[in-house]
Amino acid sequence: MTEWERWVHEAPPLRGTLERDAAAAAPYYARGEELAHRLPRKPWRTAEEQSTADRIHGRLRAFREEFLRHHAEAVYDALTEGMRRFVRVEDLVYAAAELYPGLVPTRAQVQAERALLQKDKDGVEIDQGIFLSHVLARPRPGAHLVHAMLRPKPESLGRLEAFARTGQADLGSARVERRGACAQVEIRNTRFLNAEDDAATAALETAVDLALLDPAVEVCVLRGAPVDHPRYAGRRIFQAGINLTHLYQGKISFVEFFMVRELGFASKMYRGLAGDDFAPGEPERTAEKPWIAAVEAFAIGGGCQLLLVMDRVLAEDGSYFNLPARKEGIIPGCANLRLPRVVGDRIARQGILFDRKFPAASPEGRMICDEVVPSGEMDAAIEAAVAQLTGSGVVSAAGNRKALRVGQEPIDTFRAYMATYAREQALCHYSPALIRNLEANWNAHQRRG
Hints:
Layout (H helix, E strand, L loop, with lengths): L2 H7 L8 H20 L9 H33 L9 H11 L7 H8 L10 H13 L1 H11 L4 H13 L1 E3 L3 E6 L2 E6 L10 H16 L5 E6 L19 H5 L5 H18 L19 E5 L2 E3 L1 H6 L4 E5 L3 E3 L2 H4 L6 H9 L1 H9 L4 E2 L5 H4 L2 E3 L4 H14 L2 H15 L2 H19 L2 H11 L7
Parallel strand pairs: 3-4, 4-5, 5-7, 6-8, 7-10
Antiparallel strand pairs: 1-2, 2-3, 8-9
Helix pairs in contact: 1-2, 2-3, 3-6, 6-19, 7-19, 8-9, 9-11, 11-19, 14-15
């Protein structure tokens, strides 16, 4: 019997309190990690060594799963002082690593892998996905975490006074500007066709916070900035989805991108901002505003996902929407939850599983967008849509969108979806199929970040 096989049989029983089981589990985690670290780095392993590494990591994950089945809710209570504190998801995973060594990777472990190409990583972030999946799967802590992610970021609160005074905030990969009663949030990752990555997602969430927090703003607009790409130079592009070059190069984070995007940035546009009062079981009391999307050229992947949370979608004539999840090897955010409501189950499966494109002017495209706008007339179309919303009173608009949402996607439905998403997206993020897809469909190995 090999050393790692003996280690497998040394797993302690998990039948005690959280403190007792955590104390017993920590040395078992540490021993498994030590055995894994004795192997060469992934690019230089033999097939046999890679098989051993996979078995060690698999056993570690199975043991963490067992621990979380017993203690996920108690762990969350400990990290949030009995749910008296709201902790954002990107802070929660690292707080868990400190309080319960070995349960999830430390910040240093994640940063060490962040320097590697995606194909050269062992995937320590998978354990973050397993942890978050267990938290979200339990109604009480899961709902509390969803609420925590709907609260304004501290950075946003720090910028609010200046934004209220000047009416604008330049956040690098995003910009927000108040124009009368409207706030226009602009996606500005212009080198990459306004694609999303870690920095862009963080900037966009701050921009959304500011638009929702400013009492002078009644309606919000999401639009892409003019881009630098030679093929589209100077033209507005709505959004090109996830930055696939960064994904291949290992620069896309599991928590800071995938989880923060769905629980924070996109969810805030859909649900609005939450306050200090966490009251599960009571009606939603988020502060929200109507959102309009202005699609020019295309809304690919994540861009298409964002259209599904909008109250009105304006699309330039000749533009299109698609969800190339099959070619990327990942889950397209919450599109699996929301697209079937918009276009029906069969067409949604064609879009997600078979890369069906939706031209804006097609019958299916018109299920996703509300108005096809002639080229050069988008500014006027935005003004008209804003006037229509503000003219009838935004209080009723916010109330009606909330009532529509509660009937279609109550928070508990979203929470349960995100529990599945956390696990499955983490596994997809580190699947060999993802690398093959990016190399075959994107020539990712030849592109420069």
